[in-house]
Design a protein that fits this description.
- The chain is mainly α.
- Helices cover 54% and strands 5% of the residues.
- It has 28 helices and seven strands.
- It has helices at residues 21-34, 44-47, 77-88, 93-100, 121-130, 148-153, 167-171, 176-182, 189-205, 214-224, 256-269, 285-300, 316-345, 349-363, 374-391, 395-407, 428-443, 455-472, 479-496, 503-517, 536-555, 557-575, 585-588, 596-626, 634-637, 644-657, 660-667, 674-687, and strands at residues 3-9, 63-69, 104-109, 112-115, 246-248, 276-279, 448-451.
- Strands 1-2-3-4 form a four-stranded antiparallel β-sheet. Strands 5-7-6 form a three-stranded antiparallel β-sheet.
- A hairpin with a 2-residue loop joins β3 and β4.
- 35% of the residues are buried.
Length: 704
């Protein structure tokens, strides 16, 4: 009879979903056995008790592996250790996963349970997709049958955030709070998303021209970047970038076909200042300089060269001598640190000087420490700066690194010079081979970026894409064709990266606004960054799956709301340092959540309710106008047009089910009087009905 045991693994929550999780889990098990804290429990509750754990102060960071074997001997430490040794010797994570799944059945992390086979997010995505009734041929499944705002109102208020956050996070036990914590400045990025969506809903409620302008995109970006640029010295909200930039091609956001399309684009553009693809590596010049300054100050001990007793009162003359000494000593140390940085980094000395000199002039580190114990304080400060600049490069250093990376690109075209690879004359097979090479490098962990065009060129191409969109979108014949045209635009805007930050969020929200404006359902994307480097065909498929994901969310709201409520409680339990891995109802019963979400979401909730009230009021007004009582007298003196009765019937049905598609289909064949025709146009504007116009073919019939 199979035997089940449970073991606690420290820090499991920090790596269970990493790309190389099979290797890390096998290593963690071996480490637990080697360091004698491997302990097999007969129940999960025993394994969840932190009292006897060496790691009780960080217990929530851990997790529990549920092991299963044919007998006790297969779950002994020695046997499992040997298995893990063999597993670590395998050549691929796929092989390691298969071998680990033979005895690890489930993983318990963050208060949730996952089958071991679904640790990989791709497996969880695939499992969710299987629950969709996905038929790529059915165009009707993509189309709205209700006004866009009433369609959005079908979603419970507490789940509205799912519309514009990456669904991969929600499947990985994170909700809006975790998303917001990544960019908490200002009012938070989730507030910005709700604020911008509310504004877009207002636009859907009012008549507007069919064309999309660059100014509207800038306005959207300005709202979405309020928090990102909060308290910044430069206001970059809605401002186009003025220098080149780049973004990483993430392993989950690329395919071979998508990379090949980017390569074909680079080849056809033939622009040296256009797109390029290549490795991006931080030089860390400023970080290295700061570290060298910290070390040099400690080694040189400049305070001994100008000794001062703390009780001494410095005369003005002596003070001037001290200031002059500090100035000269700083210049000497800075020169030494610059030389050491250039030498250790193997970077031309003039390049290092060109970055460090402006940094020292603008940032003036030597003026940011107190004079008491000046040199030791300055050494510590430079050490802290070195750490900070390892994570975030100053602008000048970033632009230098970008220039070096572009000059060594794996793919460029036009008038480019070596060592950049010019693919202008590559054959299709050579492009295919290069795409496969780049894809393999990215999957292997290489930091490969798409380098964007020079700003003026990027804006020119964006305007051209916008003109093409405005020219073609009115002539679409079906939902899939409209999705393709909208995707062409937002993909172009995404890879052009017109703004300093918040490009993907801007384009994702823009895409869904354009979908709603064309009577297409909202697309809840698993990973919006797949806009970057999936092929055109693959992106359209992603959008269609994302539309069905929204249908899935609407159909399963009760279950998802309970899941989200538990995520909220666990989030606050962690803030309060609750030492648990199970998060039982008893443990969570004392946890209170705040009202932040209600405050953030309320304007959008109110806007959707406002539209429903307006819509019902409009229908009531029309019914009062057309639902005329028929008397014995009226037919003779004031005949009611025969079209009124079916029109009233259609209005009542619309009032009941909100099905605008059915409504406009039913009234399309009526021979209408002028006033009905005008009211239909007003209804069409109010409801955002943007399917092919049926009214254009309706003749105008006047009754006398």
């Amino acid at each position: 009879m199979p035997v089940t045991r449970y073991i606690f693994i420290p820090e499991l929550t920090t790596f269970y979903d990493d790309r190389d999780y099979p290797q890390k889990i096998a290593t963690a098990i071996k480490k637990a056995i080697t360091q004698k804290y491997f302990k097999a429990h007969s129940t999960r509750q025993e394994a969840s008790d932190p009292k006897d754990s060496l790691f009780r102060s960080r217990f929530p960071m851990g997790g529990i592996l549920e092991l299963q074997g044919n007998d006790e001997s297969e779950l002994s430490p020695d046997y499992i250790s040997r298995r893990c040794t063999d597993i670590l010797a395998l050549s691929s994570d796929e092989q390691r996963t298969k071998q680990l799944s033979a005895f690890i059945k489930k993983v318990h992390v963050k208060g949730f349970t996952l089958p071991f086979a679904e640790l990989d997010l791709k497996e969880r995505e695939a499992a969710q997709r299987q629950s969709f009734d996905f038929n790529p041929i059915e165009d009707s499944a993509l189309q709205l049958t209700q006004p866009p705002l009433l369609y959005l109102k079908k979603i419970r208020p507490e789940l509205l955030f799912l519309l514009f956050t990456d669904h991969q996070f929600f499947l990985n036990f994170e909700n809006w709070r975790h998303y917001n914590a990544r960019e908490p400045k200002g009012r938070g990025c989730v507030y910005d998303l709700f604020h911008a969506t509310t504004t877009l809903c207002e636009r859907l409620m009012t008549p507007s021209k069919a064309t999309l302008t660059m100014e509207e995109i800038q306005t959207l970006h300005k709202q979405l970047s309020e928090s990102v640029f909060a308290n910044s010295k430069e206001d970059k909200r809605g401002i186009f970038r003025e220098s080149c930039n780049s973004f990483p091609l993430h392993y989950d956001a690329v395919t071979i076909a998508g990379i090949k399309e980017l390569l074909q684009r680079i080849k056809s553009d033939k622009q040296a200042e256009g797109f390029r693809i290549g490795y991006f590596k931080k030089s860390l010049i400023v970080s290295s300089f700061c570290n060298n300054m910290s070390i040099l100050i400690r080694q040189e001990e400049p305070w001994k060269k100008f000794p001062i007793d703390e009780e001494d009162v410095l005369t003005s003359e002596r003070l001037k001598e001290l200031e002059e000494f500090e100035r000269l000593e700083l210049e000497r140390l800075e020169a030494l640190a610059i030389n050491e940085t250039a030498k250790s980094k193997n970077i031309p000395l003039e390049d290092v000087r060109a970055i460090i000199k402006p940094f020292l002039q603008d940032f003036t580190p030597h003026k940011r420490v107190v004079k008491s114990h000046y040199w030791p304080n300055l050494s510590y400060y430079y050490s802290d700066l070195s750490t900070n600049y390892r994570h975030s490069s100053p602008k000048a250093e970033y632009q230098y690194d970008l220039g070096v990376a572009r000059s060594h690109a794996l793919a460029s075209a036009g008038n480019v010079t070596p060592p950049a690879v010019n693919i202008q004359d590559f054959t299709e097979q050579e492009l295919e081979d290069l795409a496969k090479k780049i894809y393999k490098e990215i999957q292997g962990g290489a930091n490969i970026h798409l380098f964007t065009p020079e700003p003026t060129l990027a804006l020119k191409w964006a305007q051209e894409a916008l003109q093409k969109y405005n020219r073609t979108i009115p002539h679409t014949q079906n939902a899939e064709e409209a999705i393709q045209i909208i995707d062409d635009l937002v993909h172009e805007l995404e890879i052009l990266h017109l703004f300093y930050d918040v490009n993907c969020r801007t384009n994702y929200l823009l895409m869904n606004f354009l979908f709603l404006r064309r009577s297409i359902k909202w697309a809840t994307e698993f990973n919006p960054n797949r806009l970057d480097a999936h092929s055109s065909k693959e992106r359209v498929l992603q959008h269609k799956q994302a539309i069905l994901r929204t249908d899935y969310l609407i159909a399963n709201q009760e279950q998802l709301a309970q899941y989200n409520e538990r995520l909220d409680l666990i989030y606050f339990a962690n803030l309060r340092h609750l030492q648990t891995v199970q998060y039982t109802p008893t443990e969570l019963s004392a946890i209170q959540v705040d009202a932040q979400y209600a405050e953030i979401a309320q304007p959008l909730i109110d806007k959707l309710a406002e539209f429903e009230t307006l819509f019902q009021a409009t229908l009531n007004t029309l019914l009062k106008k057309y639902d005329l009582p028929q008397t014995a007298v009226t037919p003779q003196f004031f005949p009611v047009p025969p079209e009124y009765m079916p029109f009233v019937k259609a209005l009542k049905q619309l009032q009941s089910d909100y099905n605008i598609n059915d409504f406009f289909t039913r009234v399309a064949d009526l021979e209408l009087v002028v006033e009905i025709r005008e009211d239909l146009k007003r209804l069409q504007t109010l409801t955002g009905y943007n399917a092919q116009s049926l009214l254009a073919e309706i003749p105008t019939v006047e009754y006398s």
